[in-house]
Design a protein that fits this description.
single chain, about 325 residues, alpha+beta, seven-stranded antiparallel beta sheet, four-stranded antiparallel beta sheet
Length: about 325
């Protein structure tokens, strides 16, 4: 690739910037440079070299598996950084993986510095995993008001005026609350299997079952040649969690949480119809109710996330801890 200057390469539409920078990696003189973003004078474009971290991360793998592992780790780092960078990215800014060991950042200087500190944290820290532990409780409003609400009022990082109510429990508060709730017979407790997640790679926790149903039919032919083949889809009934976890530069553990908890009506309602003369079929129309919460948590060492959803006369309470392990 023939490269002129970074400034000339960036003199293009915002949607093309990342593609152009990827091509520019072929020009060694551009690596690690900072150049102004021609579309916003508050931002700069910078390439961050993650090769030192990726080499350590994959050194124990077989040579044939290293490239794929580096690609996955770099993409995970970029996605994690996008979620947690401070201050948050504005439209037009971005953090993306490039080639096999670069992260390109289009952002303001303080955000560039934040990404640099996060990358340095990975380089200077021993390899680690994050152990996730999640419990779900279903309780009456009376139990919630007596046992959980007082902790929410005192907890740090409390989000008020929105659903769910959320806070961070410190020290042994999370353990003590879990023990107290599990002892009460009128409180339903669901303990999800603990998961050891690779740093910044999405981990999944599922408790429940996949329910398959007939969504539609694929119709072919006419008359005697008419066929109607069922088209199936599925819904998950239960607790379904995805989380991307990693150490932040300030020592806390970041958890990019995507939590779904749905109950599917069973038996699944059905609708009978006729596709052609004499060809009657049944289509299923699933109905599910529940919650979907996406949130970026920042947990101090030993901290537990506490969130609660009001559901009629009941409360759903979730306790999540994330501990970095060597």
């Amino acid at each position: 690739v023939a490269c002129a200057s970074m400034r000339e390469l960036l003199a293009t539409s915002t949607s093309q910037v990342l593609t152009v920078v990827l091509a520019a990696l072929c020009c060694a003189s551009l690596v690690a440079q900072k150049m102004p973003d021609p579309h916003d004078n508050r931002r700069v474009v910078q390439l961050h070299d993650a090769s030192a971290w990726l080499d350590v991360l994959t050194e124990r793998l077989q040579p044939g598996k290293r490239d794929a592992a580096k690609t996955e780790a770099l993409a995970g780092f970029a996605a994690f950084a996008r979620s947690f960078v401070e201050p948050p990215l504005e439209p037009g800014a971005d953090i993306a993986a490039m080639a096999q060991h670069y992260v390109v950042v289009i952002a303001e200087p303080q955000q560039q510095a934040w990404v640099g500190r996060l990358l340095a944290q990975q380089v200077n820290t021993e390899l680690y995993e994050v152990e996730l532990q999640l419990r779900k409780f279903v309780m009456s409003t009376a139990r919630f008001n007596a046992l959980v609400a007082p902790l929410l009022e005192k907890s740090t990082a409390l989000a008020t005026g929105a659903a769910p109510a959320h806070g961070i429990l410190l020290g042994q508060q999370g353990t003590l609350l879990t023990q107290a709730l599990c002892k009460l017979e009128d409180i339903q407790c669901v303990k999800a299997p603990s998961v050891q997640a690779r740093a910044m790679v999405t981990a999944k926790i599922k408790v429940g079952r996949e329910l398959w149903y007939v969504k539609d039919f694929h119709v072919q032919g006419r008359g005697a040649d008419f066929t109607a083949t069922p088209i199936y889809s599925s819904m998950f009934d239960g607790l379904n969690v995805e989380a991307s976890c990693g150490r932040l530069a300030d020592g806390r553990v970041g958890v990019g949480l995507n939590l779904k908890c749905f109950k599917v009506q069973q038996p699944i309602p059905e609708f009978k119809t006729t596709l052609a003369v004499g060809h009657k079929v049944t289509i299923q129309l699933p109905n599910a109710s529940g919650i979907h919460w996406r949130h970026n948590l920042k947990l101090p060492k030993g901290g537990t996330s506490l969130c609660s959803f009001a559901r009629g006369d009941e409360h759903l309470v979730f306790l999540l801890s994330a501990d970095a392990l060597p």
